[in-house]
Specification:
The chain is mainly alpha-helical. It has helices at about 5-20, 40-55, 65-80, 115-120, 130-145, 150-160, 165-170, 180-195, 200-215, 220-235, 250-270, and strands at about 25, 35, 90-95, 105, 110-115, 125, 130. The protein folds into 2 domains: about 25-35 and about 150-195, no CATH class; about 40-150 and about 195-270, Collagenase (Catalytic Domain), CATH 3.40.390. The structure holds zinc ion.
């Protein structure tokens, strides 16, 4: 074995690890310390840049302008009437044409997507769209953005990928999206979103979702209905962003109920 190559490899690994742990940022909304290597402006740029590619993977945007408007108005109400309004992110909400994949996801910086297949399942036969259920889905996704979960995962992926990712990061220039580095970043972000978040990220997004729903005047119990709809639709398989990484759904619903009690009593105390 070549000793000097081994040594270089070791040094590279140490640099990657030191790099990861030295990237500390305090989340401006949650106050949590996170290992993140990007500014909110870079998150926004990256999300906007990746949005067309992500949309394309789900058949593009849905052509019905009324549906787009409905989703935008519920999403904007959640953001504008809650703690999410204090964040630097530029939120926007879109319906994807995909009639088969039951999913919703958020890109870093605030671009939020819901597939038509999921939207359709939120409808009640007699009553039409239930805005509270839609608010549950969008509130949860807004939670991922505020929690900066994608940016955290990018930093983790960078640590895992060591120097090759570091090189991509080094050549990434958000003000010049045509560079090779930027294109690679777009590919990386798409992997991170598709890779699913961790269990803690999902629980945190549920918690934020409940809080934002209450603050915006929606019924947070509808988030539980959304979980039940997704669970039933998945037929035991956890494919969607929502249901991907979870412990038992019962456990999650318990946590949502606890969050509802917590935030309701906080609101009443004001
Ligand atoms: Zn989620």
């Amino acid at each position: 074995m070549n000793k000097s190559r081994l040594l270089i490899g070791l040094i590279m690994a140490v640099i990657a690890i030191i790099g990861y742990y030295s990237k500390n940022q305090i989340n401006p909304i949650t106050g949590e310390k996170q290992h993140i290597d990007m500014s909110p402006d870079q998150e926004i740029a990256l999300g906007l840049q990746s949005a067309p590619q992500m949309a394309q993977q789900h058949g593009g945007l849905h052509p019905d302008a009324r549906l787009q408007q409905l989703v935008k108005s519920v999403g904007n109400k959640i953001v504008q009437s809650s703690d999410a309004a204090k964040s630097p992110y530029q939120f926007d909400f879109h319906v994807l044409a995909d009639p088969q994949t039951i999913n919703a996801f958020a890109l870093p910086g605030g671009q939020v997507f819901i597939t038509y297949a999921l939207l359709e399942r939120l409808f009640e036969k007699e009553d039409g769209m239930q805005p509270d259920r839609l608010a549950g889905v969008l509130g949860h996704e807004v939670g991922h953005v505020i929690g900066r979960h994608s940016a955290e995962h990018l930093a983790q992926q960078q640590l895992a990928g060591g120097l090759s990712s570091a090189a991509v990061m080094a050549t990434y220039d958000p003000s010049n999206p045509t560079t090779a580095g930027s294109q690679q970043m777009a590919a990386m972000i798409s992997n991170v979103v598709l890779m699913k978040y961790g269990r803690e990220d999902e629980l945190e997004s549920d918690d934020f979702g409940v809080k934002y729903m209450l603050q915006a005047g929606y019924r947070p119990e509808a988030l539980i209905t959304v979980m039940e709809i997704l669970e039933a639709a998945s037929g035991g398989k956890r494919q969607s962003e929502f249901m991907s990484t979870h412990p038992s759904p019962e456990n999650r619903i318990e946590r949502i109920n606890a969050a509802i009690q917590k935030y309701k009593s906080q609101l009443n105390a004001k």
